[in-house]
Amino acid sequence: MASGLRSSSSSSSFTTAAGGGALSSSGRFERQLHGNGSSSSSSSSSSSAVSTQGGVSFGQTHLPGRSKAPSSRRSVTPNSRTNSGSDYEEDRGRVRVAVRLRPKNAEDIILDSDFADCVELQPELKRLKLRKNNWTSESYRFDEVFTETASQKRVYEVVAKPVVESVLNGYSGTVMAYGQTGTGKTYTLGKLGKDDASERGIMARALEDILASVSASDCVEVSYFQLYMECIQDLLAPEKINIPINEDPKTGEISLPGASVVKVQNLDQFSQLLQIGEANRHAANTKLNTESSRSHAILMVYIRRSVHEKVEDGITSWEKVPRTTLSGSNAIPLIRKSKLLIVDLAGSERIDKSGSEGHLLEEAKFINLSLTSLGKCINALAENSPHIPLRDSKLTRLLRDSFGGHCSARTSLIITIGPSARHYAETTSSVMFGQRAIKIVNMVKLKEEFDYEGLCRKLEHQVDHLTAEVERKQKLREDDKYKLEKELKECQDSFAEAKRNLITRSEFLEKENTRLEVEMKDLLNELKCQKDHNDLMSEKAARLEVNIKCSKQHQLESSTYQKVLADTTQMYEKKIAELIKQLKDEHAHAKSVEEQLNAMKKLLNDSQKTIQGQKEVDELTVKLQEMYQLHGQTLSELQSLKSEQEGLLGEKDKILYMNGNTKASSTFGTRIGSQKTNSLRETLSGQRATIAKICEEVGLQKILQLLTSEDSDVQIHAVKVVANLAAEDFNQEKIVEEGGLDALLMLLRSSQNTTILRVTSGAIANLAMNELNQGLIMSKGGAQLLAKIASKTTDLQTLRMVAGALANLCGNEKLHIMLKEDGGIKALLEMGRSGSNDVTAQIARGIANFAKCESRGINLGQRKGRSLLMDDGALGWLIANSNNSSTSAQRHVELALCHLAQNEDNVEDFISSGGVKELVRISVESSREDIRNLAKKMLRSSPTFRTIKAEKY
Ligand code: ADP
Ligand code: MG
């Protein structure tokens, strides 16, 4: 709202500007606003009635004096009526005077119908013409000229609003209406506008603006009183009828002790106050038997505003105060006190003309005293007179601030006039009053005071706050102190504890240190010993290396010896075998000779008993002697053979001794020596034991290496040793692990040597006894190799070995398919061509193994379908060989046929090949009861066999 006011004021011709200021001894800060610098000099000389700081300033008026108005009229917009910049500067502080012409009333219309108006307004020129008669007229210029159509709003904005704004900014201000009774003073100032808001007068509008501009902390108060016959009566408390005027001797400020001062909160409340005031004024005038036109009504509005950091008039009051003493939040707050006077003056007409009768002249003079005094003062001020008779009346005393008082204010005067020529004299008088007043220039001062009370309250509040804060902090500090002391105590305790622990710990560490030092010494000694030992060991290692070299050399040599030994051993074995045979023959011969001898003896005895004749006895004696002789010869032959054998053994021992293998030779020798008459089989097992020992000494790896020797003799001997080793269960896996199987298969694949092939086949047959090895042999193509050998060789021993190997493989059902696919079964059966019983026995064993595995698979439900043997013609072979002379072969053939018969899927083959007949035969003729029973069972269990058997047999 304040900004709204300012913006409105910019279009007003009543605008003022700020001037200088000074801090008074009373702490009041005052600022002067005046028209020009020269005015201040005249103020000091002419304001004897007021303080030196705040003297009234009567500046030189620059108002255009009487001048002829331009004859031409121009139509202008309202805005064009605003002052130019230069006027604005020049007219600062000057009393603003406007003229308002009341519209014609009924009386005017009736009474002046024959007369022309005496007033002519030229608002665009701000001029008023007074026509005395048809040929004489005077023109006067005012700050504003309002025609009879001027609105209340515009009158307020032009006349009063700048004053109100100025008051809100801390300056005092006065708005006065002067004029003849009935010209509209009360209408202009005091109209309430209850029915029509547009009719509201200056009082209502001013309060409206003020209330809208102030903040909650500001204060707006009003007093309302009237002045009649030099008596001041409170219109808000009409019982107060003679209120004195007090003047502060120091400041010269005017106050009305006892007058009601009512704080205004809102516009409604103010309207009510005005209404009460009007009613009281009317009642008082009735009581005093007077008319309101004879009394002056004065509305005083007191405004008290706190000064914040806002800029007013371009300068804040703070800038004028020494900041060193008033800094920060403790700076003394400033308040601005200002006062707005709205004065509805009594009618300006001469008393005798007012129509109030019944008054004495003196009384009439008294009635008019105040107004007359005002006129005199205005004259004096206008004429720049050295003496202004302000003290002559109460009105002038009250208006001292408005017309050059201590707090000289912005003052606006509105002269109300009527149009009627009948009142020409009064109108002229009013116009002239205005013309004089317009010359007055006030020194406008800003009145600011330090709000010590406010500051005091604020400081007390701060002190209270700080005291509480100090107490709070003190309490907190005490608490902290207590807490810190407690913590300190705890720290000291824990420190002492830590110290104790540290001492204990350091003692322990010292002990530990001593112990460790001792330990370290011991360790160092030990280390030294170890080092010595190491040196010793490295010496030994060096020596051992030399030894290893030597032994390698020795080994090389020994292998040559071994070869020789093996050859010799074989040779001797052969010889031993021959000798044993010879020995056996000799034994048999000796035995038969002995038997003959015994028979002879018996015969002799019988002969002697019967004594058939001396001749016969002599003949028998000769025969006996011959027999004895023969026996003796045989015995001597036997003896010589024994000695020859012993010689040979001695020679063998010698050779073994030469080889450094005294242990083996002694064992061998002992064995041979102690078992001179043991069977060949025992000799063979002895041989194996010997070979095992040799193997132990030489190492399996080395023997296996010899298998790859380029020398076929070495290969033969090596493979023989391996074959013998493979006969033992515990060697089988070891040989395979050490790569023996691969080496043997390689020999089978590459060698053309019959012996090698035979012995190798035997070795593989031995290895094939082990289930684990069976799989390996198959996976390494062993079956194919064996089949190949079988097809090539005619050597019966080789064929027996190959058949044995394949027969062993047949006992592993997991390998059946592979064995068949690799041609193993076919090869096995084809070896039957050799006609050898031994080979046939192996073939039969293989087929029986195979068939047994299949029948077991069928029983367990793991297998189905026709036997794998059928395609290769096994059944035919079995039937063909069922009458083999070898018992072993026959047994296996019979078993194989029984097992195959167990498989229902083989039945057709049996029928087509005549197998059923064979089964029936076995069930009857087999030498073994268990086989007979088995065959019977087969024939019984199969429904097909049962039928066939029933039909044919
Ligand atoms: P005063 O206070 O000067 O004696 P008033 O204000 O009582 O005069 O006015 C006299 C009469 O004239 C009132 O009835 C008032 O309504 C009327 N009057 C005065 N001025 C105007 C105006 N400008 N427009 C309309 N009526 C007015
Ligand atoms: Mg009036």
UniProtKB/TrEMBL annotation:
Keywords: ATP-binding, Coiled coil, Cytoplasm, Cytoskeleton, Microtubule, Motor protein, Nucleotide-binding, Repeat
CDD domains reported for this sequence: KISc
ARM repeats: from-to residues: 698-740, 739-782
Gene that this polypeptide is encoded by: LOC107413821
Source organism superkingdom: Eukaryota
Composition bias type Polar residues, residue spans: 49-60, 69-86
Residue positions binding ATP: G179, Q180, T181, G182, T183, G184, K185, T186
Family: Belongs to the TRAFAC class myosin-kinesin ATPase superfamily. Kinesin family. Ungrouped subfamily.
Composition bias, Low complexity: 1-27, 38-48
Coiled coil: 456-533, 576-610
Pfam families reported in the protein's UniProt record: Arm, Kinesin
This protein's record includes keyword Cytoplasm: yes
PANTHER family: KINESIN-LIKE PROTEIN KIF11, KINESIN-LIKE PROTEIN KIN-UC ISOFORM X1
Gene3D superfamilies: Kinesin motor domain, Leucine-rich Repeat Variant
Kinesin motor domain: residues covered: 94-440
Localisation per UniProt entry: Cytoplasm, Cytoskeleton
Region (Disordered): 1-91
SMART domains noted in UniProt: ARM (SM00185), KISc (SM00129)
Naturally occurring in which organism (per UniProt): Ziziphus jujuba
Protein name: Kinesin-like protein
